[in-house]
Design brief:
The chain has three helices and ten strands; from the N terminus they run βαβαβββαβββββ. By secondary structure, it is α/β, with parallel strands linked by helices.
Length: 159
Amino acid sequence: MRILVISDTHRKNLLMKEAVERAGKVDLVLHLGDIEGADEYLTSLCDCPAIIVRGNNDFFSYQERDRVLELEGYRILMTHGHNYGVSLTPTRLAEEALSRNCTIALHGHTHVPGLANVLGVKIFNPGSLGYPRQSSHTNTYGLIEIDRYGEIHFTICEL
């Protein structure tokens, strides 16, 4: 299973389109918030289901704040992250994931890509396609692949 993970696009729709195209064939697209009203645009780009959660800049969004997904035997918490203080530390997010029996948490909000293991929870942030804040200021997105053996792999990709 291949999953495209994007976040913090902030209506940079052409960059979102480029990420979808570069990712190639995927089975699922996840947007971790701050899509700023481009929900329908994203779904129009995809040949697969797209799941979107609400970010702190999605003021009039009907999307849920958090989602729990069950994919290929993994329970995954999907959130923007601002409600869990991810700008300071991922610990509260890891605790929330554990409280929902999730071993993986996906978040955005910080605009900085990364992968960490906190309290036994894999925490993955694909970075930002809209306004990256890491030192290279490179637009990034994520790919998650669950191979035929059930192993999960996380990749941060640059545009």
